[in-house]
């Protein structure tokens, strides 16, 4: 369970969130540009710090301004996949995947590689990968850290339509076979309809709607 109750001001933007998200399936975070989507997951990941409030993941306090608790990103057990893959250019795919890999995931390495369809890429450098292949590697690397939560910040946004179509089936398989809750940021209703179980709709830094896809999709 992810408990959010915080306020954060970044420049002229104010984010005010009070919501509890289940620790299962894919929750899409939807909104127009500037609605606060990336600001929300940056606060959850620890990349930014709320001015007031609490963030609690599965009973672990990640942030509590009243108690002066703010765990560093590497202490939060949260995976983060950015719009650009951010792979290490001098490491082959295998090295990128193994960077930061949790001991508990060593036995799962081959299964995850097969699930993402990246076995043929293991001995390639990132410079020889397509955009969609890079994102699959980035997702694999994040999952191999054994996170309690996976954040995906518009992972398809930088891809052209053919590459988006290539990556969507892998994300669908992950949702079905990897039991790690995901927060999936997107401004694409088409992606959300293919992937999400529920939707959190943001508008001007506040929650406009939250619930199952068939209910909250209308508010989007």
From TrEMBL:
Entry GO terms, CC: membrane
Keyword Cell membrane (UniProt): yes
Residue ranges annotated for the ABC transporter domain, each copy included: 1-220
Keyword presence, Ribosomal protein: no
GO molecular function: ABC-type transporter activity; ATP binding; ATP hydrolysis activity; molybdate ion transmembrane transporter activity
Keywords carried by this UniProt record: ATP-binding, Cell inner membrane, Cell membrane, Hydrolase, Membrane, Molybdenum, Nucleotide-binding, Translocase, Transport
Main enzyme class: hydrolase
Enzyme Commission number(s) of this protein: 3.6.3.25, 3.6.3.29
InterPro entries: AAA+_ATPase (IPR003593), ABC_transporter-like_ATP-bd (IPR003439), ABC_transporter-like_CS (IPR017871), ModC_ABC_ATP-bd (IPR011868), Molybdenum_import_ModC (IPR050334), P-loop_NTPase (IPR027417)
PROSITE patterns the UniProt entry points to: ABC_TRANSPORTER_1, ABC_TRANSPORTER_2
Superkingdom per UniProt: Bacteria
PANTHER family: ABC TRANSPORTER I FAMILY MEMBER 10
Protein name as it appears in the record: Molybdate ABC transporter ATP-binding protein
Recorded name of the encoding gene: modC_2
């Amino acid at each position: 369970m992810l408990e959010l109750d915080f306020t954060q001001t970044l420049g002229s933007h104010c984010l005010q969130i009070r919501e509890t998200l289940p620790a299962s399936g894919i929750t899409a975070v939807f909104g127009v540009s500037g609605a606060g989507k990336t600001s929300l997951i940056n606060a959850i990941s620890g990349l930014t710090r709320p001015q007031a409030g609490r963030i609690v993941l599965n009973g672990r306090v990640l942030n509590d301004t009243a108690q002066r608790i703010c765990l560093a990103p590497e202490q939060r057990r949260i995976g983060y996949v950015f719009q650009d893959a951010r792979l290490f250019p001098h490491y082959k795919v295998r090295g990128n995947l193994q960077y930061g890999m949790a001991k508990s995931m060593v036995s799962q390495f081959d299964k995850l590689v097969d699930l993402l369809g990246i076995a043929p890429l293991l001995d390639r450098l990132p410079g020889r990968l397509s955009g969609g292949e890079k994102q699959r590697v980035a997702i694999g690397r994040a999952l191999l850290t054994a996170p309690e939560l996976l954040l995906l910040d518009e992972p398809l946004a930088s891809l052209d339509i053919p590459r988006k179509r290539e990556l969507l089936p892998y994300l669908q398989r992950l949702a079905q076979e990897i039991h790690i809750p995901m927060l999936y940021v997107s401004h694409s209703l088409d992606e959300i309809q293919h992937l999400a179980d529920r939707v959190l709709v943001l508008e001007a830094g506040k929650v406009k709607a939250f619930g199952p896809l068939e209910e909250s999709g209308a508010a989007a």
